[in-house]
Every structure is written in C-alpha cells, then in structure tokens.
Q: What sequence folds into this?
C-alpha cells in the first residue's frame, strides 16, 4: 500500500492531456488553481473554456508547477546554434562591405558632379550647371534612401542576435532552422546589393574616363541613368524591414517569451517616413478643424448676444468661455497626439521630459479639468431657469433671454449628456461581447 501511494505521488514528466514531455518552453508544466491538476502551457492555451480538462472544475488561475520544473533535464544547445553564430559573423561582414560600397559610390558621384560644376563654371556654361545641380540633389536623395537600408540591416542584425538567445529558440532545433533560413536570405540579398553598388562605382569611373576631355549633356544623361535603377533598393529595404519585423515578433509561447524579450528596444522600430508623418498630421489637422466648429459657434453666438440675457447675464459668457476652453483643449490634444506618435517618451532627455510635463501635459490636464467644471457650472445656471425664461418681452428683465442664446446653451448641455449616454451604451455592449466570446 505504501509503495502504491509513493508511486502515485511521484510527479509525471509528460502532460497527461497531449502525452508530450514537459520542457521549460512551450511545454512548461502549470498547475490549475484550485484543483491542482497539471497540464503543459501549450494545452492550457488551447483550452476553450476556463474548466479543468480532467475534473471539469472551473479554475481561477494557473501557477508554474515547480516540483516538476526543478526535476526536468537541462536542455542541450543544438549544433545548428553554433552554425548560426558563424552565419551571423558572415552577415556582419557583408553588411560592412555593403556600407563601404554605398559610401564609395555616392561620395565618388558627388565629387564628380561637383568637379564638373566647377569646370563648367569656368567656361560659363550655365545651362549645363543647372542640370548638374539638379542631378546633385537627386544623388543626395538616393543616398538618403540607401542609408535607411543600412539602418534596417543593423536593426535586423541586432534583433536576430537577441532572438537567437531566447530560451524557446536557443534550445529548439525547429526554431533555429527558421532563423537560419532568414539569416541566409538576408546574407544573399545583402551580397547581391553590395555587388550592385560595386558595379555602379565601376560604371561611374568608366563614364568619366570616357567624357573626361569635354563634359556635355550626353555625360549628364548617362550620369542620371546610373541612378534610375537604384529604385530596386526600395524593394530590398522593404524586404529587410519585413525580416526585422518578423524577428521582432514574439514566439507562440507568448507568456514565457515576454520575460526575455527586449521590449524597450523594440520601440526603436516605431518610425515614420516623411510621407507617413505628413499624412498623420493632415488627418489630425482636419479632425481638429471638425472638432472646433461647434466651440467656434459657441463663441460667436455668445459674443453676438452678450447683453441679451438679463435673466442670467452669465449665460453668454458661459458660451464664450466654454467654446474657448474647448478649442484650447482640442489644440492641446492634437499637439499631444502628434508628439507622442512621433517621439517615444523613452527617447527624450531629462530636460525634454520636464518641458513636456510642465508645458504640454500639465496645461492639457488643467484645461480638461476646467472644461468639465465649467460644463457643470452651466448646468447650475441654465437648467433651473428653464421654466421661467421667455424670449418675447425684452422689458421684463427678470425672465427675458434671447431665444438663440438660451436654446443653444440648453441643447449644448443636452447633446453632451446624449453623447455620453451613447458612449456608455456602446462601451457596455463591447464589454458584454468580449465576455461572451471568452465564454
């Protein structure tokens, strides 16, 4: 009897649900609370309902089963891990070679263009010089695009190094094979692009040898053609960026991997191009215009009828101040959203953080608090006189108020409450849908 009990109390090293051996990664053992049954992390993620698959008891949470974990055999690093380290060294070398070839090509192109401009200035050939200056701008633009390529390659290299050293990848032969495949693709593409710029450099030197004696429009035309097929660099850049985003993603074992992932560094990937920034700012600008139309109407109506509400002379003033605070709040919100989109808080210096808090965040919060307080002040001034106000007899100052002023103020309050109720209903419906889907 004693031996039977001892055998039953010994922890099992395989999940009783999927009959797979436990490990410290995707098959990490967890105990369900309160029933105490153990299943692997993968099986836990596949559960459709919050019930133990063995006793059907509803579980509250899960905790790591340390009794099993501490007895698991220590994993060994596959041979492919060391092969990947060699591949990473190769990737570092070809990346450096690409950077060198890019810099040589563009520095030579700029020098040649500048020398040709100087030579033509001595000969007073202004038309040719204008074309060369335009070409010089094109060279700068293309150089900037290729700098983005090198930056994406650097990020990809750093991120792959971090990904390889994650435990769920480091000890998994299958995951390492996928990573190795990604690295080989990047190496091949980078070598191809490095050879491309090396050939371009050679073509540039041959071109200027051919026209060294007398630069002319034919030289400029051929010079320009050297840069037209650089657009293929964009597709290469997109491919590298996509590999970087793949490398930056979390593995299927989300909960365990999140402890090892360098999440703060991943914020560097949140960058915007100039066109994207312009699009976002344009959307924010037009949204701001839409949002300030109603507050502008409040200011205009309050100002036009400033002395025309003797029953409570503060109602037109309430419209003017309320409209002004709403416009200021909308502008600060737009600035705050734009700033936070394009510059993460971690990237700022300490001084910049102080300026952000005291000159943007604090004013924004103060305006919002004042707007809410001013709204409830309007409630106290407008609703109590609703049954007393009249707009026909101006001589009766104790009950008269301009119809436009009072109705606009009254319905401003009502609209706010209606919108709040709609948002509350939508929020409750969303919460109910989420709870229903979870069940």
A:
């Amino acid at each position: 009897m004693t031996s039977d009990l001892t055998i039953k109390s010994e922890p099992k090293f395989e999940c009783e649900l999927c009959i797979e051996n436990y490990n410290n990664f995707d098959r990490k053992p967890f105990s369900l609370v309160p029933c105490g049954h153990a299943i692997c992390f993968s099986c836990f993620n596949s559960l459709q309902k919050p019930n133990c698959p063995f006793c059907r008891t509803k579980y509250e949470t899960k905790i790591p089963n340390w009794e099993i974990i501490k007895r698991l055999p220590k994993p060994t690093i596959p041979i492919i891990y060391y092969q990947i380290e060699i591949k990473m060294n190769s990737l570092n070398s070809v990346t450096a070679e690409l950077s060198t070839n890019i810099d040589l090509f563009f520095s030579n192109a700029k020098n040649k263009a500048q020398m040709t401009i100087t030579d033509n200035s001595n000969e007073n050939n202004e038309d040719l010089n204008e074309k060369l200056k335009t070409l010089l701008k094109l060279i700068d633009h293309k150089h900037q695009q290729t700098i983005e390529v090198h930056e994406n390659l650097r990020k990809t290299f750093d991120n792959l190094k971090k990904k390889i050293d994650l435990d769920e990848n480091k000890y998994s032969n299958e995951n390492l094979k996928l990573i190795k495949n990604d690295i080989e693709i990047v190496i091949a593409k980078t070598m191809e692009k490095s050879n491309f710029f090396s050939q371009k450099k050679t073509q540039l030197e041959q071109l200027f040898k051919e026209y060294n004696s007398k630069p002319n429009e034919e030289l400029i035309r051929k010079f320009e053609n050297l840069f037209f097929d650089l657009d293929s660099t964009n597709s290469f850049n997109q491919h590298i960026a996509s590999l970087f985003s793949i490398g930056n993603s979390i593995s299927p074992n989300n909960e365990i991997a999140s402890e090892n992932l360098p999440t703060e560094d991943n914020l560097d990937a949140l960058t915007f191009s100039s066109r994207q920034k312009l699009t976002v700012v344009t959307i924010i600008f037009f949204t701001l215009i839409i949002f300030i139309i109603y507050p502008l109407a409040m200011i205009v109506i309050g100002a036009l009828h400033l002395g025309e509400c003797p029953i409570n002379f503060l109602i037109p003033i309430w419209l003017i101040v309320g409209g002004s605070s709403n416009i200021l709040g909308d502008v600060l919100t737009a600035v705050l959203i734009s700033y936070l989109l394009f510059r993460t808080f971690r990237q700022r210096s300490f001084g910049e953080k102080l300026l952000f808090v005291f000159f943007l965040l604090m004013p924004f919060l103060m305006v919002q608090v004042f707007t809410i307080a001013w709204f409830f002040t309007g409630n106290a001034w407008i609703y109590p006189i609703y049954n007393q106000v009249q707009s026909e007899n101006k001589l009766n100052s104790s009950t008269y108020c301009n119809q436009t002023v009072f109705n606009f103020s009254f319905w401003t309050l009502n609209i706010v409450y209606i919108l709040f109720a709609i948002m509350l209903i939508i929020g409750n419906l969303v919460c109910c849908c989420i709870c229903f889907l979870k069940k």
